[in-house]
Amino acid sequence: ERGGRNPDLNLVATLDDASLKRQNEATAYIDKVRLRLQAAASGLNSGRPDDPVALRLRISSARVKDISVYNRYLPAQSAWQLLGGEAGLTADLSLTPASADGCVTLRANRLRSRVNDQEIAGQLRVDLKLSGGVPQKMAFDLSGSTVSLDHVRVAGRRREFDQADWRARLDLHKGYAVWTQPTRVTIEAGVTMSDTRPLAAVMANQR
Q: Model pTM?
């Protein structure tokens, strides 16, 4: 947008069938990505390669091929493990190295997971709201985010639960996450559920 020794740059890239992965990942687990990325920087200096760049990322559609890839972000001693299932992903983010704003939505219609020796399946929707953070450190304020579960099924040795009308919702009144492996999360949240039968089945199976 402006030349000279310290130019202003405005780059726009549109991709219709892309794959996404983090730099340390050998395989891309997110494909069929349609996105628009805008990067803007002012007064670029070749002697300062870490000059801040403002990013606007819009993902109109994407597929997470196997949601079990996110097990790497759970604590090693976690009793809960993701077994599989595809998920749809959309996002609208505005990022600088020291600020974050926007939203990310993940929808999994056939999520399968395991808690010790029992299997829990259902529909999952995660609406992450970025209310701030420091992307350079992979740290984000998630206050105002929600997690919804529907059509949950519990299959265990002692008790089962399979009722299509069951639902639950987790509202993060305050939330802060550092997206490392494993992820570190601090939250204050409220939980609403239609009834406690799935929890009763889980506890009966765990004894």
A: 0.81
What are the backbone dihedrals phi and psi of residue 205, each rounded to the nearest 5 degrees, phi first?
-70, -30
How far is 13 from 15, CA to CA, in rounded Å?
A: 7
20 token code pair: 């996404």
Q: Could you give the CA distance from residue 173 to residue 152 in angstroms, rounded to a whole number?
A: 24
- Could you tell me which of 149, 152, 151 has the C-alpha nearest to residue 171? 149
For 73-83, what is the mean pLDDT?
Answer: 82
The band of 3, judged by pLDDT with boundaries at 50, 70 and 90, is confident
Distances (CA, A) of 133 to 94, 96, 180, 187: 11, 10, 14, 15
The residues with which 150 forms a beta bridge, in sequence order, are 123, 167
C-alpha–C-alpha distance, residues 73 and 66, integer Å: 14
- Token couple for 50: 């870490």
Three-state secondary-structure class, residue 53: coil
